[in-house]
Every structure is written in structure tokens, then in C-alpha cells.
């Protein structure tokens, strides 16, 4: 019998050093608190803090700190709709003491992300851990690039009454008489 070799030419869906999550992937992944960093648990280059998912932090809504390729957790670049989502106000602060900022010489501890976005609001997420474009910049770890499902534009922000009507109609359809 002659053997036959079938060659299928199809571009590889993900480049080396890149993880892409679509809305379908995001909705099918189990997350406890529903934040961006929980979506990355299957990425082999992402490491979580030692106290992540510990019994003492079960009710915590703050996203877990992540390290990409062993870099410090505050050296990642979080991008949301093309804008920086990095919290630059003392992300490395000591969270165990003086968290209220009573001491004027110490800032209260921050986090790595300014906004803690729920995964239900995400259209897609890209994680870059190597061969990263210089357009992102401002990091030595990795880049987490997220896109929201709804992106406000000039038309929607100048016509809020129409958005309110649409929202009311989707929640409670108009009564026809």
C-alpha cells in the first residue's frame, strides 16, 4: 500500500511568547473572583504569589499578584483598551502594616492594577511574555493586554438618554397596548 502524506497549511493561531484568550475562552474558564489575573492560571510562564488562594485570603477581591518569567509582580504592564492600567502609586508597599496611610512618611500600599476589571466585561485578553513589541514599553516582565466588550465613543457619551432608554428596554420591554 502506498502511504499518503497530507499537509495542511494553516497559520499557527498563536505566536511564540503570546497567549490569546477570546470571549469564548474567557467565559469557559473558571474564575473565583472573576479578574484578569485568574484567567492566566494555565499559562506556564505566569507564577502567582505564595499567598495566592490561601485560606486566609478566600474573600479577597483584590486580584492576585503575578510574576511573568520570574520578574517582580510590579514590573508587568497591564493595558486596558490601549491605555495603561498600571497602578504606579506604591505598588510594592508593605500591605501588612500601615495600609491606611496614617504615617505621612509612608504611602498606603497599592496594587499592580488601577482598575480591577471583571472578566464578564472582556472581549479578549492577550498575554505577551517574550518577543514583545516595543509599542507597549514600560515593563520588564510581561504585558497583559485586555479589550473591553463595550467601548464608549463620542456618539454614545453625548447621547446618554438614548443609552438609558435602550437599557430600560432590554431590562423591561415596553408594554404594547
Automatic annotation (TrEMBL):
Concerning InterPro entries, the annotation shows: Plug_dom, Plug_dom_sf, TonB-dep_rcpt-like
Membrane topology designation: Multi-pass membrane protein
Q: Do you know which Gene3D superfamilies this protein is assigned to?
A: TonB-dependent receptor, plug domain
Q: Name one GO cellular component term.
A: cell outer membrane
UniProt-annotated stretches for the region Disordered: 85-109
Q: Which UniProt keywords apply?
A: Cell outer membrane, Membrane, Receptor, Transmembrane, Transmembrane beta strand, Transport
Subcellular locations according to the entry: Cell outer membrane
Q: Which residues form the TonB-dependent receptor plug domain?
A: 18-142
Q: What is its main location?
A: membrane
The family annotation for this protein states: Belongs to the TonB-dependent receptor family.
**Protein name as catalogued:** TonB-dependent Receptor Plug Domain
- Please give the organism: Moraxella equi
Amino acid at each position: 500500500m502506498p502511504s499518503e502524506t497530507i499537509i495542511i497549511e494553516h497559520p499557527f493561531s498563536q505566536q511564540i511568547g503570546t497567549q490569546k484568550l477570546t470571549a469564548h475562552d474567557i467565559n469557559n474558564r473558571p474564575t473565583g473572583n472573576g479578574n484578569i489575573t485568574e484567567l492566566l492560571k494555565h499559562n506556564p510562564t505566569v507564577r502567582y504569589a505564595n499567598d495566592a488562594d490561601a485560606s486566609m485570603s478566600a474573600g479577597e477581591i483584590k486580584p492576585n499578584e503575578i510574576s511573568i518569567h520570574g520578574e517582580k509582580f510590579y514590573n508587568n504592564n497591564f493595558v486596558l483598551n490601549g491605555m495603561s492600567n498600571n497602578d504606579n502609586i506604591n505598588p510594592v508597599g508593605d500591605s501588612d502594616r500601615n495600609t491606611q496611610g496614617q504615617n505621612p512618611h509612608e504611602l498606603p500600599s497599592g496594587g499592580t492594577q488601577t482598575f480591577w476589571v471583571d472578566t464578564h466585561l472582556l472581549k479578549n485578553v492577550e498575554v505577551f511574555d517574550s518577543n514583545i513589541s516595543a509599542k507597549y514599553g514600560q515593563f520588564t516582565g510581561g504585558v497583559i493586554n485586555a479589550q473591553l466588550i463595550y467601548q464608549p465613543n463620542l456618539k454614545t457619551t453625548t447621547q446618554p438618554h438614548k443609552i438609558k432608554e435602550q437599557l430600560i428596554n432590554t431590562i423591561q420591554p415596553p408594554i404594547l397596548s
